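Fold it.
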Amino acid sequence: MWLVGTMESEANGVKFQGRGFDTYDAEKKVYRSVWIGSMSPAVSVMEGPYDREKKAFSKTGDGPGPDGKPTK
């Protein structure tokens, strides 16, 4: 029960790829996401609710920042 997304792009002349994995955690009643990409060996993990009125997700989590240090 996971949605898998693939992304390929370029930033400042550097090509990169990534994959996102999204699911609904029925026990916690939140949506969860995992992101992995070719620019970092670290994994980003996020979770949060879906706002039906705004038709938007509001997820927070931890992952590597541009400097490689953990960030929210």
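The first strand starts at residue 3 and ends at 11.
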